[in-house]
Specification:
Elements (H helix, E strand, L loop, with lengths): L2 H17 L6 H11 L4 H19 L1
């Protein structure tokens, strides 16, 4: 794993804790990556977790 991946992984884990997201939807994460790749990492992270929140709410 390169440094960027480790940082990103740590950021994702932090955001999951912060927003109480239990599952990391890796299948969708790849799609999110394609969509958000050109965005700033911070913005991308926020949008990713807004999507996770939506998915979580729909599952409940």
């Amino acid at each position: 794993m390169c440094k960027v991946d480790e940082d990103k992984d740590a950021q994702i884990k932090f955001m999951m804790k912060k927003y109480g997201v239990k599952e990391y939807d890796t299948a969708n994460a790849k799609n999110y990556e394609k969509i958000f790749r050109k965005m700033d990492w911070y913005e991308r992270t926020i949008k990713l977790f807004l999507n996770f929140e939506k998915i979580k709410i729909e599952k409940e």
